[in-house]
Amino acid sequence: ILNYDIMARFRRRTCIILLLFILFICSIMMALKTLRPDRAGFGDPFGLGLLPELQQRTVLLDSKQNSLNRAQGETVTRVSNLHSIAVNTMKASMSPVKKLEEELSSPNYNFHIFYYTWYGNPQVDGKYIHWNHPLLPHWDPKIANNYPKGRHNPPEDIGANFYPELGSYSSKDPTVIEAHMKQMRSASTGVIVLSWYPPGMADENGEPTDDLVPVVLDYAHKYNLKVTFHIEPYKDRDDRSMYHNVKYIIDKYGSHPAFYRHKTSTGRLLPMFYVYDSYVTIPEIWANLLTVSGSQSIRNTPYDALFIALLVEERHKHDIHRSGFDGMYTYFATNGFSYGSSHHNWASLKAFCDSNNLMFIPSVGPGYIDTSIRPWNNHNTRNRVNGKYYETAFSAALLVRPEIISITSFNEWHEGTQIEKAVPKRTGQVVYLDYKPHKPNVYLELTQKWSEKYRKEQEQWLM
Asked: In order of start, what are the domains of the chain with their CATH numbers?
């Protein structure tokens, strides 16, 4: 009987250990899946629906135009005052610039990082902007009915799954802009890709921000960073409006020392423009602007530049080439979501670009989660895996030896792609994600690490 009891206990213990081991293996497999997720592509219902939604988030605020016109004088005055404050602040702090140069990593002008200045709060802007983002409904009403509606209520409840160290800040606050520049410089990035709409235009949840560009340029220059422009799909964007807007940007900002110009293989120094949702416009329209024989050609004029198109589907590479673009980027930080954002397609895209004299700029990101604004989109979350997802993306990018790597993003908090400092936060309603067990600056440090690795490997490529 004693032996029987001993054997029974042994069998129970063995079964428990075996069950725990199986659970451990399953958890490891789930974590690994986030590093190399299944390809969603555009056969996935999410792929069909999200991109139009992303396109819709960047439209002219027609309904607000009258109120914007009435408030124009007040807005210009407020921004002018902020610019004066920024200039005075900078003058007072220019003396320790040399010390900053010694403390911070040197900028890598081949690392470009997407930056958004669409946030606002009552202290600076008189109200919350973007932090109170609405919950976006699913395109299928049956599915939409299963999820909450409404909008976020800052400062405790914001439209993000992580919470910024700076709180629900205003992008117009000079102290915030300077903090951002210092973080981007500490990460050894070199070029800020600034989300941009023409004057008087904005995304559907924001307000015009073109007046803020001079302040961003000034602080970027203080930290030896450069600024280029991420042209969003504003209403009626076509060859004619693009010509006028490129002319406007170069005329107004082109003489600033922080304005980015890229040195081409022929030795020319040209401005660079990323064009978001470029695929929405047909190649024939782009060719009017971007080819030498086009009716609105910008080529060989004082406003000639490098134009980089967004590649989502594989067929877009041929459209981009026909359109006269100078290169392509992939933007999305969701490995497997689109053809362009899937790491395993980067080698073939780089080969296509090399054979057609185009630049290939892969976009890497630390992860993706947008369930704070799209609560139905959980299956497209990409877990950060404590930084491993980010490092996997960098590793894949370096394998194709790109001239430039873009980073999605510094502070797109709604989609959880930010590398800006985030902190743990728990409220009565929400428990935010965080970077633990690491510090709030972990993704800045990882970026700096890969910037140095890129520099060393690039030296080998050029030998």
From this structure: 113-462 (3.20.20.80)
> What is the Cβ-side half-sphere exposure of residue 153, based on CA atoms within 13 angstroms?
6
Which one-letter amino acid corresponds to residue 434?
Answer: D
From first to last of its 463 residues, what are the pLDDT tens digits of the chain?
556 667 777 777 877 887 787 777 767 666 655 554 444 433 333 343 455 434 443 333 344 444 434 444 444 455 455 556 555 655 555 555 566 666 788 999 999 999 999 999 999 999 999 999 999 999 999 999 999 999 999 999 999 999 999 999 999 999 999 999 999 999 999 999 999 999 999 999 999 999 999 999 999 999 999 999 999 999 999 999 999 999 999 999 999 999 999 999 889 999 999 999 999 999 999 999 999 999 999 999 999 999 999 999 999 999 999 999 999 999 999 999 999 999 999 999 999 999 999 999 999 999 999 999 999 999 999 999 999 999 999 999 999 999 999 999 999 999 999 999 999 999 987 999 999 999 999 999 999 999 999 999 999 887 6
DSSP line for 301-317 = STT--EEEEEP-STTHH
Reduced to 3 states (helix: H, G, I; strand: E, B; else coil), residue 114 is: strand
